[in-house]
Amino acid sequence: MRKELQNAIIKELMSQLDEGRNVDAGVQYKMPTNAYVCADTARREQEAFFRNHPQLIGLSGDLPGPGSFITVDDFGVPILATRDKSGQFHAFLNACRHRSVKVATEERGTKSVFTCPFHNWSYANTGNLLTIPNNDHFGEVDKTCMGLVELPAVENSGLLWVHPNPQGTLNVDELLGELAEEFPSFGMETQQAVGNTTIEKNLNWKLANDTFGETYHFGKLHKDTLGRIYYGNNLHFEEFGRHHRFVTANRGIDEMRKLPESEWDISKCTFVLYHLFPNVQLITSKASTTLIRIYPCKDNPGQSVTRVGFYYAPEFAEQADDVGRASASSHDAYEFTEGRASLSASLEVFKSTIENEDYVMGEMQQQAAESGLLKEIIFGRNEPALHHFHNNYREALGEPLLERA
Predict the structure, then answer these.
(1) CA–CA gap between residue 359 and residue 102 (Å, rounded)
(2) What is the Cα–Cα distance from 86 to 246, expressed in whole angstroms?
(3) What whole-number distance in Å separates Cα of residue 236 and Cα of residue 231?
(4) Which residues contact 52 (CB under 8 A, 6 or more apart)?
(5) Looking at the 3D structure of the chain, how many domains does it have?
(6) Among 169, 194, 209, where does a domain finish?
(7) What is the dihedral of CA 252, 253, 257, 262, to 10 degrees?
(8) Neighbours of 203 (CB within 10 A)
(9) From its phi and psi, is residue 330 left (phi > 0), alpha (psi between -120 and 50) or beta?
(10) Which CATH number is 43's domain given?
(11) 150 & 189 share domain
């Protein structure tokens, strides 16, 4: 992020804190609760947003070297992503061309050859079909035409993108717009994967996404957790088509006031979060990145899965890899070192704050929506990210935009 932009954002947040004001969208909206429970809407979302839309599946650090691979099974198309011996990133349908059994079942690892467990057909990590056991019994097969089904895949600024449709279009510059110029400044391509966690809850995937849409609740719901670090009720918000940037101040902003503007550092006094349509929240800095991917559960609008990956720049990765402290629940888990949270603190934030506070609220919201008695809820003037999320979803499905309250 450009230094001039960093300083402008910090100044705006300081001004909001000094004046006791917040971001103001100038309008309230009514949100139909049916959107969280309707099975037909869920089917249309699955098709439009997941099976036929580019998916961010990880960072470069998830494929740290030649032969590394990951598998993904969250959006209706089983994916095998690999890095070949030349360092090239590939993505394939994780299915043998013989009888469609997965050729890789581990979540991640290192392999140069993948062997189907059913009949032992084997494939290179470039997707090429290598061997067919008992080929004289099976019959002749043109191996050049029977490799794994390859999917469009692009590695850009440290982000791994895949299109689940082999005929899909994947142009990251067009997809991200202006953000494609901003992301290289964070150096995500050098950051190492150091840990991950999964949250499965009884709430619609959009309700899980809503968790990351406002700071109004920080000093209330999170008064004993994130509320110790972040002020709440302040926000710098900017839209980039269907994506947006969301920045809020932590208490380190008080230290920035003592420094000349030339020494201001946005990573030490805020968190910078990017919403990437439709289901990604990306919190990033030059030191670390947290990648949050939120998925619906097929055939159940009332359930979702949140995948969280943690990444650190090489100079911080070793200290961040201290997973043994991940069970910490004291105030120490929320202490920051030079503007960075340790891995243990990051894991604790997602356990005690997101899973046990935000998502518990979401499950209550889901129950109310499923009752059918509460037809709508309200998004306030101080919640522009929620306006943006839901109007984008509705527009993409050809539905009318939210009505003003």
Answers:
(1) 32
(2) 37
(3) 13
(4) 164, 165, 168
(5) 2
(6) 169
(7) 90
(8) 27
(9) beta
(10) 3.90.380.10
(11) no
The 10s digit of each residue's pLDDT in 201-227 is 999 999 999 999 999 998 898 888 888
Helical (H) or strand (E) element with 7: helix 3-19
In single-letter form, the type of residue at position 37 comes to V
Q: Where residue 69 sits, what CATH number does that domain have?
A: 2.102.10.10
Q: Which of 30, 146, 17 is nearest to 405 (CA)?
A: 30
Mean pLDDT confidence for 294-304: 95
Domain of residue 108: give its range: 55-169
> Which tokens in the block code for residue 303?
């359930």
pLDDT value of residue 320? 54
240 shares a domain with 388:
yes
Give yes or no for a contact between 154 and 130, defined as CB atoms under 8 angstroms apart.
no
Residue whose entry in the numeric block shows the structure tokens 């420094």 = 259
Kindly report the pTM of this predicted structure. Answer: 0.92
The domain boundary residue, chosen from 112, 136, 169: 169
pLDDT digits (tens, 9 = 90+) for 63-107: 999 999 999 999 999 999 999 999 999 999 999 999 999 999 999
Cα gap 20→200, rounded to integer Å: 37
The reply to whether 329 and 193 lie within a common domain is: yes
Report how far Cα 386 is from the mean position of its chain's Cα atoms: 16
Helix (H) or strand (E) holding 206: helix 205-210
Binned at pLDDT 50, 70 and 90, residue 319 comes out as low
Q: How is residue 85 written in tokens? A: 């011996």
